[in-house]
Design a protein that fits this description.
Layout (H helix, E strand, L loop, with lengths): L9 H42 L6 H14 L9 E6 L2 E14 L2 E14 L4
Antiparallel strand pairs: 1-2, 2-3
Helix pairs in contact: 1-2
Length: 122
């Protein structure tokens, strides 16, 4: 003898909820991942410039850093990029904000990148 189990239709509502969660997650990922990838590449580039800054003047380093920021479509104000050489060290700072537009909401993502490294002499 088989007993029939009543079905309440919970499967469809749960499925629709998870599809909505998946769509929202994909939208967030679509907006966030490119910005995070660009900021990581920018930080790596700043580190590379600091590592091999022995003969370069701070003005030149700032210029190439700003060129890289434009290439990566990062909205960096040149006034918020600082390059200083002190003794055998170099300090590079960059501060910028990226606005991520979502339907009905704008997330303001602040970045403060700083490199303080010794200048390698070779």
């Amino acid at each position: 003898m088989t007993a029939h189990i009543r079905q309440r239709g919970e499967g469809r509502a749960g499925c629709m909820f998870w599809v909505a969660v998946l769509i929202v997650g994909a939208l967030i990922g679509f907006k966030v991942v490119p910005v995070k990838f660009a900021s990581a590449r920018f930080y790596d580039y700043m580190y590379e410039q600091a590592k091999y800054a022995q003969r370069s003047k701070p003005e030149f380093i700032k210029k190439v850093i700003m060129r890289k920021a434009r290439e990566l479509n990062l909205p960096i104000d040149p006034k918020k990029v600082v390059v200083k050489k002190r003794g055998g060290r170099i300090l590079i700072q960059a501060e910028y904000t990226v606005n991520l537009e979502f339907p009905g909401y704008t997330y303001v993502w602040n970045f403060q990148e700083e490199i303080d490294e010794p200048i390698f002499i070779w």
